[in-house]
Specification:
105 residues, mainly alpha, 0% strand
Length: 105
């Protein structure tokens, strides 16, 4: 079997197939970016600081993260809390609350 100039032979039913690669997936125009990819490190830090102040009062958190809507803040929260960083942040916050209770506060 002799292949054509681009590696295919229609009479033989051989067509070139692209290999799926991580780089190809990440740069594909068909790929939707993940929620976390839409947030800058500064926006995430501001989100965490506002979350520490206001808890899940998301419209107050949005007032601090001025570049996002309340919907985007809520969407990010439910993704972020499942990450290792979100769990670590929550665990440290819970430990702090427990130590305040032991102090008689």
């Amino acid at each position: 079997i002799r292949l054509g100039p681009f590696g295919y032979s229609p009479p033989a039913g051989r067509y070139p197939l692209e290999q799926a690669t991580a780089l190809g997936y990440l740069t594909s125009p068909l790929r939707r970016p993940a929620v976390v990819e839409k947030w800058s490190p500064y926006e995430i830090a501001t989100f965490e600081a506002a979350l520490a102040l206001y808890g899940k009062v998301f419209h107050r958190v949005r007032d601090w993260v001025k570049t996002k809507t309340t919907k985007e803040v809520v969407e990010f929260y439910y993704i972020w809390k499942k990450t290792s960083h979100g769990r670590r942040w929550k665990d440290s916050y819970v430990e702090e609350m427990e130590s305040d209770d032991e102090d008689g506060g």
